[in-house]
Amino acid sequence: MLRQTILRAARRLALCLILLPAAAPARADERAAWTALEQGGHVALMRHAVTVPGVGDPPGFRLDDCATQRLLSEAGRDWARRFGAELRERGVTGARVLTSAWCRCVDTAELMDLGPVEVFEPLNSFFGTRGDGAEQTAAVRDLMAAWQGPGTLVLVTHQVNVTALTGIYPASGEVVVLRPGGEVVGRIRP
Length: 190
Description:
Structural class: alpha/beta
Number of helices: 5
Order of helices and strands: HEHEHEHEHEE
Helix content: 40-55%
Strand order of the largest sheet: 3-2-4-1-5-6
Low-confidence stretches: 5-24
Mean pLDDT: 87
Number of strands: 6
Strand content: 15-25%
Radius of gyration: 19 Å
CATH superfamily: Phosphoglycerate mutase-like
Distance between the termini: 42 Å
């Protein structure tokens, strides 16, 4: 009996020692991201919150009609509200909030309730060649490079855009925090 208890404890300790190195960098990465946001003058580049299942949008969707697009799920709507509340609780102000014209991005930005939301077309998805990825990415890079604060520049966009700007494939709702020049400071995962 004692031997089994010792073996179980040893296994648990070994598992913790295996998992700890993987968890520590993620926590440090997230701490760095939050610290940067709390200081202001940084960029919060985020993929819209989680949507109803699917990839892309249905054939024939229109940007001027949300009923034709893939939209946020209830979990996504809830996450956007909670994330916005956490930002406000930490004193992070969205000095400027820009979003893609897609309804799932606009809804994410509005539900965070950080201030007025503006559509910035270079944040629109270019998945499936719906836009000019290189031109849009350059325009967003220029916008970020010019950011001086005060507060945080919040950009709500799509996976393809975040990946083009950072090389990171973000989860739905993930935030990549950058210095204005585009250097990644850290990530906040939902």
